[in-house]
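quick one, 165 residues, struct below
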Amino acid sequence: MMEVAELFGSVGSASEEALAALALCRMGVSPETVSKSLSWKDFESFCSNILRAKGYAVRENIYLKKPRAQIDVLGVSSRISVAVDCKHWARSSGYSSLARVVEAQKARARRLHDTLDAIGPIASVILTLVDQGARFVDGGAIVPVFALGDFLDNIDAHEAHLEMV
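---
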């Protein structure tokens, strides 16, 4: 088993593009507008910066072995963690597509939870560019980027809809 401190020991700095995007948001430009101009990698960094701003310790691109899988972003707070799959989709997806994505993310979160020592419950989150309509699918949260900050601020209110691992 790996210690949580080991996982966060090698965190690199965020990209300049993601930091510029965060600055634009602080100036009043909507996160949805800003994130559309980012590459998928910078979109992940943008998500990480929002989590950091909300007080989470963050690790990007966690690779799991046997079978090989990846968690885009893990945010850890003193009470709850969020495993985020960043989807840089330009349009909405149907419920069945969202359900498949959520199931895969929950499986990755379960594997990560089983790998780490001393980590609390993990919620599975799918972060999207556009509003998908659904907020919760099969125990996972579908969060448009413009609502990520509010979702994190009110995560306690959403716990009944989340399947925690």
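DSSP finds seven helices and eight strands in the chain.
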